[in-house]
Structures are given as C-alpha cells and as structure tokens.
C-alpha cells in the first residue's frame, strides 16, 4: 500500500497519527463504561463529554445537541426514519433527492414500506437541486426534507441556506447529510437553517465506526435503537469511547489544517486538468463548475469505460473510484450521473479522484499523466 497512489479519500481516509495517539490510552488503560458510576466509569464519561465538547465546538453546535452514532449511515437513518416516525401523526410525506447517498435513499425506501409517501427531487445537469422543484413538491402533510450538503460522487454543493430558510418558513424539519462536507467546508451549524446534520469520522482521518447526528433543540426523533439510556435516551448502546476520542482529535486537526488542505486540493485539480489539456485528450468534468467540494474531481474520458480505466490505473498503482464506494463492484451506472441526465458515453466513462492529506501535487500530476497515457494507448489500439 505504501507505494500506491491513493486518490479515493471520499470513500475513506487513513487515520491521522495524532488521532491514533489520542485513541491508544482508551483502548489500553481507560476502558471503563461511561455509564458506570465507579471511578473507571467516571473517567471514561469525562473523556466522552470532552470529546463531545470538542466536536460540537468545531461545528458550531451546543454539546448536548450531538448524538454519537456508529457512522454516517446510522446518523442518516436516525434522522430520516426517527424524524419521520416521530411526526407520523402530523403527516406522512418526506422529500429527498435522486442523488443522495444510499444511506438516505434506502432509509426513505424503508419509510415507503412503512406507509410514507416519498418525493425524490430531480437535479439539473450539474447535480444541483432546483428551488422551484422543492417548492412545488412541498405539501400540507410534508414533515421532513433530507438534502445532502455536498455530493459524494461529483462534489456538487447544494444551496443549503436557501433550502433551509424556505423550509423554516413552512415549519418543515430539514436534515442534511454533511458527511463529505464536514472538515472541508467551513460551516457553523448555529448559522445554518438546518435541524439535523450527519457527520462521520472516517472521512476526516478519524477511525471507522463512529459518527454523529446534530439534532436541533425540540426536534422530535424516535430512537431507532432500543436498549439502554445512553446519549440522553436517544441512542441505546455503549458508546465507542476510543473512536469518539479519535473523532474529536480528527476534528481538531481538521480545524488547524483545513485552509491549507483546501488550497492544496484546488491546486491538485488545476494540475490534473492542465495535464489532460496539454496531452490533448478528450475529458469532461462532471458536477457544478463553481459550487463543488474542493477534494472531489469527477471526470469522464469518453471512449474509455469506467471499469477499464480503473483496472488500468490499479495496474500502475493508482487507486481511484467509479463513485460511491458502497456500490463499487456493481457494473450499474451511477444513480447520481443518471439523475444528472448526462450523455451515455459521459456517464459510462466517469472516474472520481478524491484528494486527502497523504496526497501531493506531484502525485496528482503523476496520476493525471497515467490517465493520459491510458487514454492515448486505448485510442491507438482501436
């Protein structure tokens, strides 16, 4: 793995050395259950609440509004299923988009089986939701809207503030999946018109298996896990203390390095595009040209099938992706690119490069040159 050029940080990231160091004592020495009343339990509880304070502070939230989960998927499920179920007497209509992560889409499908009506909003060719589509979709029985902050495949950033302000006026609860935006976009939850927001540690160089749901005051959510009274009776189960401590450290590192990281990612994008332009190969950048996450570059090379490109890149030690890691392995077209109504040859040749802390600008150039060589070689062999 050491000599592999890894450009799949949107799928998962390596654990930062500082995160590993912060976690180690909670795997070896401080192993008490945070719910226990003895000294070991109190020590664990103190660490848990310090971590909650640190993460809440980073995202501009009150500490008590943060519920720890097993990751972004559980946070999304809790927000959507828990939020809808808590309001089912008020109404049974939910709105989301066609380009959400499967953690949101499958949660919505579950609600449909439970008797809810779900509207899946279309997007334009840049992957953006149109406000008029949302406005037209709202009904008197609409109780919940879930629209992601930044897309995990093409990086398009949605107009969250505009959407949230409109929904506030209507008195409709708004959830956003901010798993990809967290740590790269400088947002403060206290300044956003959102009621629920999902985040995950392993996308920001924290450990896998831990995430959180921001839950605004007085927002009704029925628990989806049943057992103990952890997390103020909102999420049963012993907290993943070491993971949560690691999550807190990852947010601290992200806070210190965010501006530098973003500048580096923008430079990587520019370098890759310059290489392809100079090599005079056909390429098409997918997603919004301006409102896009800095660490994601989704690009198509017409004439070269996605799987062929990924295989060829893998052979030269470069890891990229076809979109969502949760669906890689299937040869189906990305639901995001299908929703964007891209031409077939664009959709079938799309590759996602996603940048992270281990990458250098030189590596980005190397990867782009490898792509150019593969495209040229395959063109010659036809």
Automatic annotation (TrEMBL):
Catalytic activity field: (sulfur carrier)-H + L-cysteine = (sulfur carrier)-SH + L-alanine
GO MF annotation list: cysteine desulfurase activity; iron-sulfur cluster binding; metal ion binding
Pfam family, one: Aminotran_5
Domain called Aminotransferase class V: residue spans: 6-365
EC number: 2.8.1.7
Entry keyword set: Iron, Iron-sulfur, Metal-binding, Pyridoxal phosphate, Transferase
Family: Belongs to the class-V pyridoxal-phosphate-dependent aminotransferase family. NifS/IscS subfamily.
The protein's name: cysteine desulfurase
Origin species: Brevibacillus parabrevis
């Amino acid at each position: 793995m050491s000599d592999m050029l890894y450009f799949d940080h949107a799928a998962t990231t390596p654990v930062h050395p500082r995160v590993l160091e912060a976690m180690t004592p909670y795997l070896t020495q401080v192993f008490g259950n945070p719910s226990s009343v003895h000294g070991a339990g109190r020590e664990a509880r103190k660490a848990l609440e310090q971590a909650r304070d640190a993460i809440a502070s980073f995202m501009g939230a009150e500490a008590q509004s943060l519920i720890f989960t097993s990751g972004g998927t559980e946070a999304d499920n809790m927000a959507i299923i828990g939020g809808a179920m808590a309001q089912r007497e008020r109404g049974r209509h939910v709105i989301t988009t066609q380009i959400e992560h499967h953690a949101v889409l499958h949660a919505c499908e579950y609600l449909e089986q439970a008797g809810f009506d779900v509207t899946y909003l279309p997007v334009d060719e840049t992957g953006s939701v149109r406000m008029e589509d949302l406005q037209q979709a709202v009904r008197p029985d609409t109780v919940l809207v879930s629209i992601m902050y930044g897309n995990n495949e093409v990086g398009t950033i949605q107009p969250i503030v505009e959407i949230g302000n409109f929904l506030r006026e209507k008195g409709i609860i708004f959830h956003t999946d901010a798993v990809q935006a967290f740590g790269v976009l400088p947002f403060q939850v206290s300044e956003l018109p959102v009621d629920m927001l999902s985040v995950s540690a392993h996308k920001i160089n924290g450990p896998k298996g831990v995430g959180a749901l921001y839950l605004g005051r007085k927002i009704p959510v029925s628990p989806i896990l049943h057992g103990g009274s952890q997390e103020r009776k909102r999420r049963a189960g012993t907290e993943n203390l070491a993971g949560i401590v690691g999550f807190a450290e990852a947010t601290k590192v992200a806070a210190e390095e965010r501006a530098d990281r973003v500048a580096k990612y923008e430079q990587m994008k520019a370098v890759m595009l310059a290489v392809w332009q100079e090599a005079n190969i056909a390429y098409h950048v997918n997603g919004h040209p301006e409102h896009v996450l800095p660490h994601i570059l989704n690009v198509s090379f017409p004439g070269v099938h996605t799987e062929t490109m990924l295989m060829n890149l893998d052979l030269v030690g470069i890891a990229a992706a076809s979109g969502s890691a949760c669906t890689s392995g299937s040869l189906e077209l990305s639901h995001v690119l299908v929703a964007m109504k891209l031409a077939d040859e664009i959709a079938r040749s799309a590759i996602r490069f996603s940048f992270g802390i281990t990458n250098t600008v030189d590596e980005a150039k190397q990867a782009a040159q490898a792509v150019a060589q593969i495209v040229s070689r395959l063109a010659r062999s036809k």
